[in-house]
Design brief:
The chain has 12 helices and 2 strands, in the order αααββααααααααα. The protein has about 400 residues and is an all-alpha fold. Strand 1 and strand 2 form a beta hairpin. The chain is elongated, with a radius of gyration of 27 Å. Keywords: Membrane, Transmembrane, Transmembrane helix.
């Protein structure tokens, strides 16, 4: 799991703080380690499925590119797919880190720094590096989740960022926050259990909690808002495109909203236990309900690595084949609707008292002329209820 509490276990344990010692002894049990191993295997499998096994139908499976403003960028749908892939890559690295760390804890004794006054630099370094690896890549998954929501909203509005922009922000922000939090925690002596000076201990431990929980809370707050706006935009575009709400349009709207809700639900299920754990530890440290804390920890050990597995279920195309773009179609009702719309545009441009003298050939020319647009003009293609 990714939690700042584990990183404090990597400090030298010279002071023998009773709450810390009791938590560390429970953390290093066989039962907890086995739970981490099993859940991380499912996480690795889900990430591998997203990266290498999942296949896309239609042209979005290929890396379609086009030049925009002199810069070569991915098409809108393929950009969404690329974000999902990089989210899975970060999930794979994090789950693999959980698996390797748990395996070493299972088969190598005294991986955690022992309860003694002797310097144990090797244990501290291994514990700190493995925990930093897991925290960094899970923080990347949080930011990639936010990027996917931003991309959906901007795509519906007719704008988007290049994939390199998302890469720049995700990897650099995660590295900066992880480095700052762990540097304050471990430098210079990796002795964060110095309870003789409560103020100093808080100043060393608290920044890492802020750097970890800050992005997590930001995604929890921002994603529902962004997806709510995206749902309203889907409603607006459907109404603007068809000027009526049939069962097909209602079904499409419902599928989008369900998918957005499931993406938010997965994130909350996977990471809300971490937030609860942090609140309990900081408010009840000297009178900890150990049974409650351990229950939350086991939940975290299950849900954190399973994020990749759950993402493989919600970040995929659904069976919905409705497009907004005007294109050739064999559907007679759609063809009639387009002809009626074009006829309405021509009639509105004709003076009321002027007789229409257009020939059928002229009318056909107007129908296919580029200057004639549907009103309101369809703005974006929404295909397969995925926006990827």
């Amino acid at each position: 799991m990714a939690d700042p509490t584990i990183q404090t276990f990597c400090c030298h344990n010279r002071i023998r703080s009773p709450p810390a010692i009791k938590l560390m002894s429970e953390f290093d049990t066989d039962g907890y380690i086995v739970v981490c191993l099993v859940s991380s295997v499912f996480g690795i499998a889900g990430a591998i499925y997203q990266i290498w096994i999942r296949h896309e139908d239609g042209p979005t499976h290929h890396a379609v590119r086009r030049r925009l403003g002199g810069e070569l960028t991915l098409s809108s749908q393929n950009l969404g797919r690329q974000i999902i892939v990089w989210l899975a890559v970060a999930d794979l690295c994090a789950s693999l880190g959980v698996f390797l760390r748990s395996a070493l804890w299972k088969y190598i004794n005294d991986v955690l720094p022992p309860d003694s006054d002797v310097d144990d630099t090797t244990n501290v370094v291994f514990c700190a590096v493995s925990s930093a690896w897991i925290q960094y890549f899970y923080m990347c998954t949080w930011l990639w989740t936010l990027c996917y929501a931003i991309n959906v909203r901007r795509q519906l509005g007719g704008a988007r960022y290049a994939i390199r922009t998302y890469h720049y922000y995700v990897w650099s922000i995660s590295a900066l926050l992880t480095a700052v939090g762990l540097t304050v925690l471990y430098v210079p002596d990796a002795d964060c259990h110095n309870v003789h000076d409560i103020t100093t201990a808080y100043m060393r431990i608290l920044p890492n909690y802020i750097m970890t929980y800050g992005p997590m809370i930001a995604v929890m707050v921002a994603n529902p808002v962004i997806y709510y706006q995206a749902s309203r935009e889907v409603d607006r575009q459907l109404v603007a495109r068809f000027s009526q709400m049939s069962n097909t349009e209602r079904d499409l709207m419902a599928k989008f909203k369900i998918k957005f809700s499931l993406i938010n639900l997965v994130f909350y299920v996977c990471w809300l236990p971490n937030l609860v754990n942090g609140v309990v530890l900081w408010t009840m440290w000297f009178n900890l309900p150990f049974s409650m804390v351990l229950t939350v920890w086991y939940i975290m050990a299950i849900t954190n690595p399973l994020q990749a597995f759950f993402n493989s279920l919600v970040y995929q195309k659904w069976n919905c084949r409705l497009r907004f773009r005007r294109q050739a179609s064999s559907d007679s009702s759609a063809e009639v609707r387009r002809r009626n719309r074009t006829s309405l545009v021509t009639n509105e441009g004709t003076p009321l008292l002027q007789p229409k003298t257009e020939s059928p050939s002229t009318s056909t020319l107007h129908l296919h002329h580029p200057s004639v647009e549907l009103i309101p003009k369809p703005t974006r293609s929404i295909n397969s209820c995925s926006l990827v």
